[in-house]
Write a structure and sequence with these properties.
Largest sheet: 10 strands, antiparallel
CATH topology of the largest domain: Immunoglobulin-like
Distance between the termini: 40 Å
Oligomer: single chain
Shape: globular
Bound molecules: zinc ion
Length: about 375
């Protein structure tokens, strides 16, 4: 199957690292996994769904017959350009965009891939929980990642998608429903004594978050990473993501936003994948830390370090030594707190460490891989 994309200069992807998202892989996923959601475009309205505040009617559900969905997808993809969105009076006929949300349903703490096939389209965006994000374009495809908080409300949540053509005309807008399922996170009581107890003060936690926020929420419109992420340390995992934490016998105050690796002070900490250092600094709560921007709204953070060995703006490759383990900030002993942030939401890092848990956007984007994992959320 050949790509039929335009030869326009791509401004949003580095030429040396094209994203090869093939229709075939998407279809294979749908056929094999039986768990993706195939959404149909509703079209036919030229209002901007995100600017106007209007609530479009979601398309009818097609859940429950994935094999049929796959056949439908195959049939529609093999039609070449015959599905024009005539009601928006396009200058040229364009095929109807197709939208994939992977996986679906999605559980608390998961990363979600939104993939849109839209030949001829110029821009695409998504609206999720009050925020609108641009999607990254690669020829005929647009993609974006977003995260589900560990304590996100379960049940149906609305996702808006908009696609525009070269003249700014609306090719697609729709709102659909993503089902978020719950995870039974463990609850742990942590005893913090001595001087560290003062660091439990909410204002100190807030100051930490305020300091780091700008450096892990921006959108770099490229994918710097390749393949699966590597563990940032050889140490054993000592605490998992999502654990609900109470301190000193109090009520649950927060959840564990990453995973912890044990080790001695001075143990090497390596960049989990390629990227650019967006922040290197210190807060009272997290101690010494470093954040790496992997592009597409995906960041990794490394905390409680004894030493930070890179500075902001430095390009790092996967496996590069970036820091050394320590016990700075609110830590009961030397360890590495490592977290993955996707569009500002801390997500379960474990799926990012395993090829079979997460699609590789370059080589084998096979959304099936995101669907066949065992649920690691509980460890
Ligand atoms: Zn931790």
């Amino acid at each position: 199957m050949t790509m039929s994309g335009s030869h326009q200069q791509r401004i949003d992807q580095p030429a040396q690292r094209p994203i090869r998202l093939t229709r075939r892989t998407v279809l294979r996923a749908l056929v094999g996994a039986g768990a993706g959601v195939l959404l149909t475009a509703c079209g036919g309205d030229d209002l901007d769904p995100f600017a106007s505040g209007r609530q479009p009617t979601p398309p009818p559900s097609r859940a429950g017959d994935d094999a049929q969905q796959a056949e439908d997808a195959q049939a529609q993809v093999e039609q070449t350009g015959s599905q024009a969105t005539s009601q928006v009076a396009p200058v040229v006929e364009l095929p109807e965009p197709r939208v994939y949300v992977i996986p679906s349903p999605v559980s608390q703490g998961q990363t979600v891939l939104l993939l849109i096939e839209a030949p001829g389209a110029q821009t695409a965006s998504m609206s999720w929980q009050g925020q609108t994000f641009s999607l990254l374009r690669n020829e005929d495809r647009f993609l974006g990642f977003f995260g589900i908080d560990a304590n996100a409300p379960v049940g149906p949540q609305s996702l808006g998608v908009a696609v525009s053509g070269p003249g700014g005309e609306q090719l697609l807008w729709q709102q659909t429903v993503i089902e978020i399922t719950s995870v039974e996170w463990t609850v742990d009581n942590i005893q913090i004594d001595g001087p560290n107890a003062a660091l439990l003060e909410p204002s100190i936690r807030q100051a930490d978050e305020t300091t780091r926020l700008p450096f892990q929420t921006r959108l770099t419109p490229q994918l710097h990473w390749r393949g699966v992420f590597d563990p940032p340390s050889d140490g054993q995992i000592t605490a998992l993501y999502g654990e609900q934490r109470s301190f000193n016998g109090g009520p649950v105050a927060e959840y564990h936003t990453g995973i912890d690796f044990g080790g001695e002070t001075g143990t090497s900490v390596r960049s989990a994948n390629s990227g650019v250092v967006s922040w290197a600094g210190r807060t009272r709560r997290r101690g010494n830390g470093i954040i790496v921007d992997h592009g597409a709204g995906v960041f990794t953070g490394y905390y409680h370090l004894s030493e930070v060995l890179q500075t902001a703006g430095t390009v790092v490759e996967q496996g590069d030594l970036i820091a050394r383990m320590g016990a700075t900030g609110l830590a009961t002993g030397p360890h590495l707190h490592w977290e993955v942030v996707v569009r500002g939401v801390t997500v379960n890092p474990l799926p990012w460490l395993r090829l079979l848990e997460f699609p590789d956007p370059y080589q084998e984007l096979n959304p099936l891989n995101a669907l066949t994992s065992t649920n690691l959320a509980k460890g």
